[in-house]
Amino acid sequence: MKLGLGLYRHQLDGDHFRFAKQCGCTHLVIHLVDYFRSSRSNQPGDQPVGDDAGWGLAGDPEKLWTFEELAAIKAQINAAGLELEAIENFDPAHWHDVLLDGPKKRAQFEDLKTIIRHLGRAGIPIMGYNFSIAGVAGRVKGHFARGDAEAVGMDGPFDKPMPNGMVWNMVYDRNAPPGVVPSATPEELWQRLKDFLDAVLPVAEEAGVTLAAHPDDPPMPTIRGQPRLVYQPQLYQKLIELRPSPRNALEFCLGTLAEMTEGNVYDAVDAYSRQGKLGYVHFRNVRGKAPFYKESFIDDGDIDMLRVLRILKKNRFTGVLIPDHAPQLTCAAPWHAGMAYALGFLRAAMQALG
Ligand SMILES: [Mn+2]
Q: If you placed Cys at 105, which of 76, 97, 134, 156 could pair as Cys (CB 3.0 to 4.6 Å)?
């Protein structure tokens, strides 16, 4: 197993690469979507949370991530002595109609295929994605974690409809007509995922890029009146079996799995790591279950992280572990301190297990 760090778009620079290296990381997972652009409430310095209006404005639909851009970022990361393991999340600008089954869906499949080919050519092994209409929405912020550290949680269901022009908790069309996005049915949502895998997975197979699916955060049957795909542990199995392939895998989020009301996180870790389905793993601890839970420090929640690591070791997982979100530590650099704390814990735990 290898230790990695996830970096947001605004953190893709030499200082953050050195910070990861200094914390003992060998790998990075990077975000190319800017979650903080033109947002009234969502500010960099923490994980994106935002309000009813979402995180911010999606990217430019005409600008796909180019091979040159990806190769340059990878070269910079390699020069800092690190490997680039994955890109996390497609830009809503590039796939809004794939999620919404809109008129640009076929054209956007071609764009996603182009992006996957660029990843393959640049030697980036994993593309993490979150096939979700409402995205990571409906969470609240507060001093929920140990020592009154600021963290994120959920305080009841959130089904306020989503305005037109929005998907995946970001705005992709500022000039959309008034009104709300009609609710899909769960069957329609699964069909949309199947269409996506049918279109993109063959290209991922050719390009040598693994598609890794994040579960729905928060794991509720609906958010903003829209159905969710993977909100119980066994729904990951449904996703895998929808289109079996070594390139159809999971961005395995421990915190989200622990928030689910059915099953338990250790059985899920065992079941999916035994099948060799883990692309990479998000380490995050949490107290409680959806729709009432709070994110916590890695050593201070419902999940026994050492037990998780023992299961991963038993099943010979060799991929990358990264901290997911962490509570903000009270100091001049709350995000950095939170990540350094989680990474120190993970590194010690990995060394203890040999
Ligand atoms: Mn996660």
A: 97
